Amino acid sequence: MTAGMEKAGHRFPVRVYYEDTDAAGIVYYANYLKYAERARTEWLRAAGAGVGAALKGLIFVVRHCAIDYLQPAHLDELLEVETSLLAAAGAVLDLEQVVRRDGALLVRMQVKLACLNEAGRPARLPAALRAAFETHLQSQECA
């Protein structure tokens, strides 16, 4: 997705704590993955009430993640992680997650999630969940 063409997605606030930073007070690069994971969990919750029931016996795992670190975040700053669904097909969700501080883009992530069954094999998204994601996609396009 090109700059300026971002779709409005789910927003999740994150405060930078001491434990998130290195000796210079800058967020350690791997902690952005933790922020993104928390934001995805809340995004799933917001995408469809009862996601836990819809996912009975299924799990999402990160299959691929590409990250661009553009600017650092610092101790005690308030950040926002925005999660946008780009596509949902079969057993795969494609997401974009961005981390901002006061509107300034700090980090951009392209994340591919795979849906797996209890045996660890790819599993198609349940119809109810797929419908919730499609509704979520349409609402993003209208935003």
The oligomerization state is: single chain
Please name the CATH architecture: Roll
Query: N- to C-terminal separation?
Result: 16 Å
Class derived from helix and strand content: alpha+beta
CATH homology group: Hotdog Thioesterase
Query: Mean of the pLDDT scores?
Result: 86
User: What Rg, in angstroms, do the CA atoms define?
Assistant: 16 Å
State the share of residues found in helices, binned by percent.
Answer: 25-40%
Number of helices: 3
What series of H and E elements makes up the topology? Answer: EHHEEEEH
Indicate the proportion of strand residues: 35-45%
Q: Tell me the CATH topology.
A: Thiol Ester Dehydrase, Chain A
Number of domains: 1
Mind explaining what this structure looks like?
Strands 1-3-4-5-2 form a 5-stranded antiparallel β-sheet. The chain contains 3 helices and 5 strands; from the N terminus they run βααββββα. The protein is α+β, with helices and mostly antiparallel strands. The protein has helices spanning 31-47, 51-54, 127-142; strands at 10-15, 58-69, 78-89, 92-101, 104-117. The chain has a single domain, classed as Thiol Ester Dehydrase, Chain A, CATH 3.10.129.10.
